[in-house]
Design a protein that fits this description.
about 350 residues; three-stranded mixed β-sheet; about 20% strand; nine-stranded mixed β-sheet; TIM Barrel; alpha/beta
Length: about 350
């Protein structure tokens, strides 16, 4: 019997600007662009630059979902430049959409926010509106002169079946729209913990959801596999558990701003987030050192190798005692500025 191919591990990075409280206080707050992606400290980039440096050092590739509807407020720059840098570094650029940015197309956006809020989900919207929004996002990348993406992630992992139908009509073949530890869709067909699935003709690779057992007989808590939320030891164990169960692909979620601490929504006062930086480096090294067992692949690469689709009936279980050190580290990281 030939050896099993390596289990695909997909590091996915959402590249997005920050609303920075603007919708809560539209008269005094303004969105933040470049600082939320660059996270520059003393002339050194601890956001996107750190990610690209770390991946290059370990010879790994990732998928960067680039948010394009922010152009309604910021125009094409600097997001276009970030997408070009990511492509030049050899990574996949997928499409990321936060529909809330579209409100800035309206001169009276402040009064609209006060009346009804911005709306950051396409779930339950008419089919033509969903398709038009996704097409708008694709059109921005076309205007930038970038290759047409094949993958999409909706903001906040908010999705329903109508979004997949619109994706299929627009030629988007791969999605990573599901993460039960972050958002649970009203469509039961999207209650997926991991693996690869065909949804309305689109291959969906959910962010891995795992169950954390809680003390005192409380029901398990579902968590998504993220750099900022999952300690390095737990991540390694989850990868090994999925490998042993012949599951996968394993999708990990992160953002550039997770690698810097900030004291204000404007990203004016920053400090390197050393704990999260070490977690990313550990993941890249763990995969690189085990080529027979794991391959860090882009979302599109993993989808192409996952046919017939794999199915994970339930997410991996993690005992509370094993995640407790990571929870303590996260809390200390939040409380101690210089940690």
């Amino acid at each position: 019997m030939p050896p099993r191919p390596p289990t695909d591990v997909c590091l996915t990075v959402d590249i997005e600007f920050s609303i920075a409280g603007t919708f809560h206080d539209p008269d005094r707050r303004r969105p933040v662009g470049a600082p939320a992606v660059e996270c520059s400290i003393a002339g050194e980039g601890h956001g996107l630059d750190f990610l690209l440096r770390t991946l290059a050092r370990h010879g790994q590739r990732a998928t960067f979902f680039v948010e394009t509807l922010c152009t309604a407020h910021f125009g094409d720059e600097p997001m276009r430049t970030y997408a070009e840098r990511i492509l030049d570094a050899g990574h996949e650029v997928g499409l990321h959409l936060h529909p809330c940015w579209q409100i800035f197309h309206f001169p009276d956006w402040r009064s609209r926010v006060r009346r009804a809020g911005p709306g950051d989900s396409l779930c339950g919207r008419p089919a033509e509106a969903v398709e038009a929004t996704i097409a708008n996002g694709l059109g921005v990348m076309e205007r930038w002169g970038l290759p047409r993406p094949t993958s999409l992630r909706m903001g906040n992992l908010m999705c329903d079946l109508g979004i997949y139908r619109a994706m299929a009509r627009l030629g988007l073949t791969v999605a990573s729209n599901v993460g039960l530890g972050i958002h649970r869709s009203g469509d039961a067909a999207l209650h997926l913990t991991g693996g690869a699935h065909v949804v309305e003709g689109v291959t969906e690779l959910p962010v891995l959801t795992y169950d954390v057992g809680l003390p005192l007989g409380r029901p398990p808590r579902q968590k998504c596999l993220t750099i900022t939320g999952t300690a390095a030891g737990t991540t390694r164990r989850l990868l090994q558990d999925v490998r042993a169960a012949d599951g996968g692909p394993v999708v990990v979620l992160t953002h550039p701003f997770e690698f810097a601490k900030r004291r204000d929504p404007d990203f004016a006062t920053l400090r390197p987030n050393r704990i999260n930086q070490r977690r990313l480096a550990d993941l890249c090294a763990f995969v690189a050192e085990r080529p027979a067992d794991f391959r860090m692949a882009t979302i599109t690469e993993a989808a192409a190798s996952a046919h017939p689709p794999t199915v994970m009936a339930a997410g991996p279980d993690v005992a509370f005692a094993s995640v407790l050190p990571g929870l303590i580290a996260n809390r200390l990281n939040d409380l101690v500025w210089r940690l």
